[in-house]
Design brief:
Elements: E1 3-9, E2 12-17, E3 27-30, H1 36-59, E4 113-117, E5 128-129, E6 133-137, E7 142-146, E8 152-156, E9 165-175, E10 181-188, E11 194-200, E12 204-211, E13 214-223, E14 235-242, E15 245-250, E16 253-259, E17 267-273, E18 280-290
Antiparallel strand pairs: 1-2, 2-3, 4-18, 5-6, 6-7, 7-18, 8-17, 9-14, 9-18, 10-11, 10-17, 11-12, 12-13, 14-15, 15-16
Length: 293
């Protein structure tokens, strides 16, 4: 049989031998029986030592453990959040009395009438008919009619030379769309140099100048609340010419002022221009020219 292990104690040998599975257990054999009393003494001593150790360990008191006592809860004041701050009670202001202020007429104070024209004398205007349209007199009015897209027609007053003056004329667009233009020619000289005060059917005004073979715009195209857009409409145009200063009015409202010494004098005229592909018809009437101080 094979030995599982040997327990060697001084003076004796303890062998535990395995047995087949059918045996009740291992066989304990003690050799050298004369040492049995010594073995008994040894076992007693071991037991006594172990018991004493256990008793001693159990008798030692455990060190005191600090008790983790949580501090008593302290009540902390929580600030109140004001989500909607109070507002002062609204006190409506006293109702002001509504006052309607009439439109101020800023036209200048003028002197005597130099002349007026009811457009009844064909000798006083350059009239005619071309392939693009016509300039003709009707009943107390001069009508420029344009039938060709992009065409420009004008009519000049004959036997007239003006330097400083105030002028008014009524312009009535009958057929007019978008950028189609109409208005006055001023200080036109023998070289056909001139100022051109124009309005269009979008409600804009401008001043062009043709001088020394070149065209320019001393006052570019600008919207004005004084100009009624579209057609039919009626506007009273005014011009104050005093030396190099030219002041322009529409329906009693000053729209702009320009200083330009290029053209000191000349005749006057009216014009119309098509800026699209539809016919344009403008009537001019009630021309008056006044002296100024």
């Amino acid at each position: 049989m094979t030995s599982l292990y040997d327990l060697r104690v001084p003076g004796f040998i303890l062998n535990i031998n395995s047995r087949p599975p059918t045996h009740r257990g291992p066989e304990l054999t003690v050799k050298n029986l004369s040492l049995l009393p010594s073995l008994a003494v040894l076992i007693s001593l071991l037991a006594a030592v172990g018991l004493t150790g256990c008793t001693t360990a159990a008798a030692e008191p455990l060190p005191p453990t600090a008790t983790d006592t949580p501090p008593a809860p302290t009540e902390t004041a929580t600030p109140t959040i004001i989500w909607f701050p109070p507002t002062a009670t609204y006190t409506p202001p006293p109702t002001a009395a509504i006052r309607i202020t009439p439109t101020v007429d800023v036209r200048p104070v003028v002197g005597d009438v130099i002349f007026s024209d009811d457009f009844s004398d064909p000798e006083l205007w350059s009239l005619g008919k071309t392939g693009s349209g016509s300039a003709a007199l009707g009943k107390n009015e001069l009508t420029i009619a344009i039938s060709e897209p992009g065409a420009y027609l004008y009519s000049l007053r004959q036997q007239t030379n003006l330097r400083d003056f105030y002028l008014e004329i009524t312009a009535s667009p009958n057929l007019c769309r978008s950028g189609d233009e109409y208005g006055l020619l001023l200080r036109v000289n023998e070289n056909l140099e001139f100022y051109r005060f124009g309005l269009n059917c979008s409600g804009q005004v401008r001043l062009d100048k043709f001088f020394s073979g070149r065209a320019s715009s001393p006052y570019p195209l600008t919207y004005s609340g004084a100009v009624p857009p579209g057609a039919p409409s009626i506007s009273r145009l005014g011009v104050l010419a005093r030396g190099k200063e030219l002041t322009f009015f529409v329906n009693g409202q000053q729209v702009f002022v320009v200083e330009d010494p290029s053209l000191p004098s000349g005749t006057i005229g009216v014009f119309a221009r098509s800026n699209g592909d539809t016919p344009v018809t403008i009537n001019f009437s009630a021309l008056e020219v006044f002296e100024i101080g």
